[in-house]
Design goal:
This protein is of the alpha+beta class. 28% of the residues lie in helices and 33% in strands. It has a domain at 2-120: Aminopeptidase (3-Layer(aba) Sandwich), CATH 3.40.630.
C-alpha cells in the first residue's frame, strides 16, 4: 500500500476511479457522490485527464492497495507559492479507511517539497459533510465563492444552482 505519482499508464484506471467515485450508481455507496447535484456519469474525460498527467505543473498522486489496485487519487497543481488540490477520490467501497486522509497528508508533503505556503481547494457549498471533513484537517473557509464554471457543464448538467467555496490550509 503506497502513494506515488500517477503516470499516463494509469489513465484508464484513474478515469474509472474518478467517474465511479463521484457519479453513477457506484458513487451512491460512498459519501462523495455528486449525483444529486449534477446529471451525467462523467466527472472527467480522457482528454482532460491526459492533459493533467503530462502537465509539468500538475501531479496526480495515486494510492495503490496491497493487491496493486488503484483505490484513491488526488490532483495537485502548483500555482506560484500555492498548491491547488482537487479531484480527491477514494473508491466508494474503501472510504472511511483513512485513504483520503493519507492522500491529503501526501499532498501536504508534496506542497512542502515545492515550497508552497498554502493549499487551496474549492468545495461545493452544499457539501457540508465534506467541508467539515476538510475543516477537521486544518482547512478554513476563506469567504470566497464562485459559480460552478460553465465549461464544466459538459461533465454534467447542474440539477440546481451550484456555488463553490474556497478553503485553504496554511502550511507554515
Amino acid at each position: 500500500m503506497s502513494v506515488s505519482k500517477a503516470s499516463i499508464s494509469d489513465l484508464s484506471a484513474l478515469l474509472n476511479l474518478v467517474n465511479t467515485t463521484y457519479r453513477g450508481e457506484t458513487s451512491t455507496k460512498g459519501w462523495t457522490s455528486e449525483i444529486l447535484l449534477l446529471a451525467g456519469d462523467i466527472r472527467i474525460d480522457e482528454e482532460i485527464l491526459t492533459d493533467y498527467l503530462i502537465n509539468p505543473a500538475v501531479s496526480v498522486l495515486k494510492y495503490m492497495n496491497s493487491e496493486n489496485q488503484l483505490i484513491g487519487c488526488v490532483y495537485l497543481e502548483q500555482k506560484e507559492e500555492n498548491l491547488y488540490l482537487g479531484m480527491l477520490a477514494v473508491n466508494p467501497g474503501s472510504q472511511d479507511g483513512g485513504i483520503g486522509r493519507l492522500l491529503l497528508q501526501s499532498a501536504e508533503e508534496h506542497a512542502r517539497q515545492l515550497i508552497c505556503n498554502k493549499i487551496n481547494i474549492t468545495v461545493i457549498e452544499d457539501r457540508t459533510e465534506l467541508i467539515a471533513w476538510y475543516q477537521r484537517r486544518g482547512y478554513v473557509i476563506t469567504g470566497k465563492k464562485f459559480p460552478f464554471p460553465v465549461e464544466y457543464h459538459k461533465y454534467g448538467k447542474p440539477l440546481k444552482e451550484i456555488i463553490l467555496i474556497e478553503m485553504e490550509n496554511n502550511l507554515k
